[in-house]
Amino acid sequence: MKEFILATLCTIAPLSFSYSAHAQVRYGHQQLAFAQPKSVNVNAEALNEAVSLIRHSVDDDEIPGAVILVARRGKIILHQAFGYRDIERQIPIETDSLFRMASNSKALTAAGILVLVDEGRVDLDKPIGTYLTAFAKDSWKKVTVRHLLTHTSGSPIDRLFITPLLPIEANKNRNRLIAEVSRFSASAPLEEPGVKYSYNNAGYNILAGMIEHLTGSYKEHLRSRIYAPMGMLDSCNHESDADNDRMSTVFVRQEDGSWKAGWKPHDSPDWPFPRGSGGMVSSAEDYAKFYQMLLNGGTYNGTRILSKNAVGEMTTPQVQHIAAAKNYGLGLKVLEKRGIFSHTGSDGTFVFGDPSRELIGMLLTQTNKTTRPRENFRTLVQLACNPTFASDDVNSPKGENRYDGFYKDIFMDSGKYLTSRKVLHAAESLSLSYEYYAGADQRKQNELMINSHYDPNGVLLFPDGQPRFKMLYVNGGGATRHGESMTSNGLKRIREFYSNGGSYCGSCAGSFFSGRNVDNQTQARPSYLNIFPYNTYNTGMKNVRVGHILPDNSPLLNYRRFATDNRVSEIYHNNGNWLPRDKISEAMKNVEILALYDHPGHKVDGEAAIWAYKNDPVAGRIVNIGCHPEGSASGDKLLLTESCFLYALAGVGDPRIKSHLKMNQIRVMDKLTVDDQPEFTRIGGQQYHHFTFTVPPAAVGENDRIAIELNGGGLSNLHIYLSRDSAAFRENAYYMATGRQQNKKIIRKLSPGIWYVSVFCEDSVRTIEDSLAGFYRTAGNRELLQGVPYSLEIKTARVR
What we know:
This protein is an alpha+beta fold. It contains 15 helices and 38 strands.
């Protein structure tokens, strides 16, 4: 890892926007320089959380290597490199490594056009045929330069260039870029220009051809008018012009999780000529200069690059011109509410600019077909600048009504081969906190669910095997294939979660998945959980709407009231399951019917549509739903899902007493998950460990006291709670010790008999939703996931 944190100063003069098209006027605008975070009012500790996301991603082999950069108010306050630019040869990535910027090239193409607009040579609202004669035809006459810049041209072209390319001939097609993009003119737009946004690489290649035609050279135009004046010496627009000895290999994730080199330094370029849709090569610091110029209003180091108006066009949604471009400026995606502009590149580059915070951030990787923590990185960087900024800029918590002693209320699993669902309406309406996995990466799914080098017990369990979540919800999709993707170890983890007190709720495939097998199959299906120890039955109904009736004795009616006759109508059903009532009464012990199908003329009419199972007082409760009410955000279907969740959560997860402590003996809790000694295992974040002890009659004299001493492990803040009548929590504690010191003590005169003492770990590893990747990431110090060691001693003491 390379890191540069230098302390330098720069003088910032008042902003001025007077402009002469060809004059090189110096304005004293900000030039990037290195400084410490505190010099620009950034919380360094919070910024380190953003850094931890990238470090974790490299350590976990999610990405092979990355360079990150953060600048605020013209000061680079973070510039670090992690991992490798070539895995096979183990060549470390450096902060000055070069990257193929892919679609982050589009902003430079747009800027190149706007330089010509500032000079009066181009009008954004004139047809492209005005500047490229091949497009001066009726079929393209409505397509303007602005349409191409905003991906609203209506063009059907879904490729970079038409292949095979034109042959090289001495006296023909001398300018290959112009010749190749001119071929696009034969494909007439299918949509009315300006009506529909459709991301289009060909449009930006046409724009590069237009620049080539007007200036003589697309790449020389960008070099002389943008790169050179700003000192972007590492930047160019074709791999053949780059320093290949500093370039990074582009790696592609394979189906088995391994990496395979795609493009390597010194390989032939993807295309033999420059292109406007991609092809730029740059370094983090170089590209940051371009974004700083945009934040400066068009100047850099005192040199005017673009007019203020041109920058405004680039960084403002183009809705006033084109309704379909509500989230796109010119070459940049724009978050309209706060003016945050950004772009991504298919080879793994991400850059954002935040004018309201005078902020630039970037995450540069060279990866394909993998997830990347780019939006989470942006969120944490913004939080480091202003911890109180608007919640609509971040992934806010789902709710705060956490069950005391549990980390979260629900873990919603929409894993590989299950329907990706990232919002669970009933959990939202009940203000339950939840996390999910909704990705298709089996490697990541099993890393989270089973174990990893940083979390050996998996996301569902605390280090001692107790549930971190109160309920696991599994929705629709392919139950058998999902179980196979989780492997036997994943199924074992969920069974541990359930047997130790975590509830389970499944819809459709999730309901099948909990059971033993389907229909009348005699053998247990290896890819099913078998926590519901009976077969369920396939309805055979596909893509239909059905009704449910709740019997008068249904426990669900304790939580919600429904329409007349307790009927819920129009519930979506697709190959869900059911249980015959006669089978329940004859052979299925401890099964409760919660709702019946109302579908006259079908075999399931009047049979069990929703049912519950609870056999062991220690284990959780299973609630299975044959249909899909969970997709509804209102009405009786939402109420039905809410009541199912509430019943699944009710009366489970009772406190487990680890041990009865003996007086004057030290209890050491330092074992790891792999030691398989849960009674001596470390405590997890936001977890309680419950104990009892007996105060003997001999220890109740006038000067007798009981001392409870906790020696913390140093990684986290541990508290002690003491109660007489039941397991001790913050809410019912008679006495407590909750200071920030590592070691804590309670000394009290206690009545004889049994007392309850609990240790609570106040801290937890921060989780943050990555909706793009489909799972929750951890930030900060992940050692806490392996638990915090401590010792506890109950002893007698005397006071004078």
